[in-house]
Amino acid sequence: MSMTKINWYPGHMKKTKDMMKENMPLIDIVLEVVDARIPISSRNPDIATFSKNKKRIIVINKADLVEKEEINQWRDYFIKHNDADEVLELSAETGFNMRRLYSIIDKVAAEKKERMMKKGLRKVNTRLMVAGIPNVGKSRLINRIVGKNSAGVGNMPGYTRGKQWIRIKEGLELLDTPGILWPKFDERVGFNLAISGAIKDDILPIDDVACKLIDKMMKYGLKENLKSRYKLLDEDFEGVTGNVIENIAKRMQMIQKGGNLNVHQATLTLLRDYRAAKLGKFGLDRELLSQEAKNEK
């Protein structure tokens, strides 16, 4: 498939962006949630633009799906590029590193309270905004912060709707926002979003998405992961990438009625397995780290 830009910007996302900008003067801390598998591809540049004068924390969520060494490289990357005041990897799903996030939030709140009390204000509220693209785990993160299911959580991209203020505790409030993409993103970003499940599976041709994942795994030297998972042989990788998916269907005995290979089932299985880290714990933005290393030489 040939394309340079992907346009996908439903009307509710523009409304959400406008709502976030409108409420930004009330906000003290912006928690920008990114997906550990696609830390750059899952960053909406609009969020960075209209939150640059706030205390910024990049939360690398789903850290349990990527090896620690790779996450450490991304933490260094964000710090080097001054993308945030704090960078923290965690898993809202498992609760990993949530205590560290609590302590960062409490520290910022205490600093604001001290400043305001010096000005004679007794009642001080610190307000957080949780922002990010669809399906990076914002609602699960909010549930962890609040300690109960105060925000709706769904597995489908773009589940959360509307504007929702949540009182965490005395003096601390949080604004939940729906996930927003930006109007245009390039092919590399589009495929990364599709592979990880950040956008719905019908946005891009799913066969092309699966082929792109295989291409990336081959580029990253992860051929053995595919061989082990699907009982593939070296000969199964000969020819075009689409042949690999057909061979997955053959080796895993995915057969339709009539005896034909169920290539669609193999495609869905491949993507589901990556999203569940059954093909290994690796991200899809690795080439950016490689380019960064080259630029430093």
Structure characterization notes:
With 297 residues, the protein is an alpha/beta fold. The protein is 43% helix and 14% strand. The chain is built from 11 helices and 8 strands. It has helices at residues 11-23, 45-50, 68-80, 98-118, 138-146, 187-196, 206-219, 223-230, 241-251, 263-275, 286-296, and strands spanning 5-7, 29-35, 55-61, 86-89, 126-131, 164-169, 172-176, 184-186. A 6-stranded mixed sheet has the order 4-3-2-5-7-6, with helices on both faces. Strands 1-8 form a two-stranded antiparallel ribbon. Strand 2, helix 2 (45-50) and strand 3 (55-61) form a beta-alpha-beta unit. The radius of gyration is 21 Å and the shape is elongated. The protein starts with a strand and ends with a helix. The model is unreliable at 151-161 (pLDDT under 50).
Q: In a few lines, what is going on in this structure?
A:
The chain is α/β, with parallel strands linked by helices and 297 residues long.
List the defining traits of the structure above.
elongated; 6-stranded mixed β-sheet; alpha/beta; 297 residues; two-stranded antiparallel ribbon
Write the layout of secondary structure elements.
Blueprint: E1 5-7, H1 11-23, E2 29-35, H2 45-50, E3 55-61, H3 68-80, E4 86-89, H4 98-118, E5 126-131, H5 138-146, E6 164-169, E7 172-176, E8 184-186, H6 187-196, H7 206-219, H8 223-230, H9 241-251, H10 263-275, H11 286-296
Parallel strand pairs: 2-3, 2-5, 3-4, 5-7
Antiparallel strand pairs: 1-8, 6-7
Helix pairs in contact: 6-7, 7-9, 7-10, 9-10
Average pLDDT over all residues: 88
- What is the alpha-carbon Rg in Å? 21 Å
Range of strand content: 5-15%
Tell the overall outline. elongated
Sheet with the most strands: spatial strand order: 4-3-2-5-7-6
Total strand count, please?
8
Helix content: 40-55%
Q: Tell me the distance between the termini.
A: 35 Å
Helix and strand run: EHEHEHEHEHEEEHHHHHH
The low-confidence parts are 151-161
Structural class: alpha/beta
Let me know the largest β-sheet: 6 strands, mixed
Number of helices: 11
